[in-house]
Design goal:
Layout (H helix, E strand, L loop, with lengths): L5 H13 L14 E2 L22 E3 L11 E3 L1 E5 L4 E5 L2 E2 L4 E6 L24 H22 L5 E6 L5 H6 L9 H17 L18 H8 L32 E4 L4 H10 L4 E7 L4 H4 L4 H4 L4 E10 L9 H11 L4 E3 L4 E3 L6
Parallel strand pairs: 2-5, 7-8, 7-10, 8-9, 10-11, 11-12
Antiparallel strand pairs: 1-2, 3-6, 3-13, 4-5
């Protein structure tokens, strides 16, 4: 493998200086050692993610090696050029790491915000799929959050909209931490606001007006596969204060970031706390998880991001299970992102060989 050129080194120095980081560049020995009898990836939770099987795996040298590192995070990526999967050990400082959970929406979870009937859509788009996603949160994401809270610097959840008065009293934000009385008042207001809304939406159309020349086009224009507008989700539904799902144990120190406030406040909050690494969980792998405010397309510009592959679910239209959709979305992301899994994130004292 070729060494970094002096020209490339100069570019890297300029980029790190512009980002306010120490201007230090090292030569990384990109030695890829074949792994004998590689094990399937993402095989710990096969109900949620189909194990990923590839013929060729390589072991690469450590990539992230923090001084005083105390958190082992093994990860992998795929390279067509290398003709296989590259597995990479990493050692992070937990104090320089944040766990970010994208869009853990409290939908159909008993808090009051629910899918409009008879044909409304939200989150995973049907009550059954939302219940399934809630169980994934409870069984996979919740234990991960509870295990890492107190080890990593921050636990952050992202939600749609802006910080409204109700959620400002319920959750900590970048510049405000409500006290116990404020949180109790906010929860009462949240319950009342969600209960007062009329969740009745429009029904499916009985008839469609189809032209003789373009019936297929006209059919889908009038009866699309996904319409989350006022037709089926009544006006005001998306302006309600969407809560963090009840399937997570939200701690008073956990932080909520709001999509409509943009990426920069989240970036600046993490930087100010000395965070350099992000463990990313959340929903949905093929949509919000990559493209919203706390998605990896934003975060990977400024932080070392590790996608926690079995702590995310992709959308799964026309399927009873998300298994294959999750694997497909992560495999595509792995061309440009590092992917880890829950069992590969461990304090060094517990790290497995």
């Amino acid at each position: 493998m070729p060494r970094a050129t002096p020209f490339l080194g100069a570019i890297l120095l300029a980029c790190t200086a512009a980002a306010g980081e120490p201007a230090a560049v090292r030569d990384y020995a990109n030695r890829l050692v074949p792994i004998e009898r590689p094990q399937p990836l993402l095989a710990d939770h096969p109900e949620w993610c189909a194990p990923l099987v590839e013929e060729r795996h390589f072991e690469a040298p450590p990539l992230v090696t923090d001084d005083g590192g105390d958190l082992a995070v093994r990860a992998w990526r795929f390279s067509y050029n290398a003709r296989g999967i590259v597995e990479i050990p990493n050692t992070l400082r937990a104090a320089a790491t944040a766990l970010v959970v994208v869009h853990p929406w409290g939908i159909d979870d008993g808090q009051g915000w629910r899918t409009p009937e008879p044909a409304g859509v939200a989150d995973f788009c049907t009550p059954r799929k939302n219940a399934l996603a809630g169980r994934h949160t409870h069984e996979v994401v919740r234990p991960l959050v509870n295990r890492l809270r107190g080890l990593v610097d921050s636990v952050v959840y992202s939600l749609p909209g802006k910080r409204d008065p109700i959620r400002a009293r319920c959750y900590r934000s970048f510049d405000h931490r409500p006290d116990a009385d404020q949180r109790a008042a906010g929860q009462a207001e949240l319950k009342a606001a969600l209960a007062a809304f009329d969740y009745r939406g429009g029904a499916l159309p009985d008839t469609l007006a189809l032209s003789a020349s373009h019936p297929v086009r006209d059919y889908f224009r009038q009866f699309p596969g996904l319409d989350a507008g006022d037709r089926f989700d009544p006006a005001g539904f998306w302006r309600l204060p969407i809560p963090v799902t009840a399937d997570l144990d939200v701690d008073p120190d956990d932080v909520v970031a709001y999509d409509d406030e943009g990426y920069e406040p989240l970036r600046d909050f993490l930087r100010a706390r000395g965070v350099r690494h992000v463990l990313l969980a959340g929903y949905a792998t093929d949509m919000c998880y990559c493209k919203t405010t706390a998605g990896y397309e934003n975060l990977s510009r400024d932080f070392n991001v590790f996608l926690v592959g079995d702590a995310t679910l992709a959308t799964f239209p026309a399927n009873r299970s998300p298994r294959e959709a999750v694997t497909a979305a992560l495999a595509l992301a792995s061309l440009q992102q590092l992917v880890t899994q829950v069992s590969w994130i461990r304090p060094l004292t517990e790290a497995r060989p």
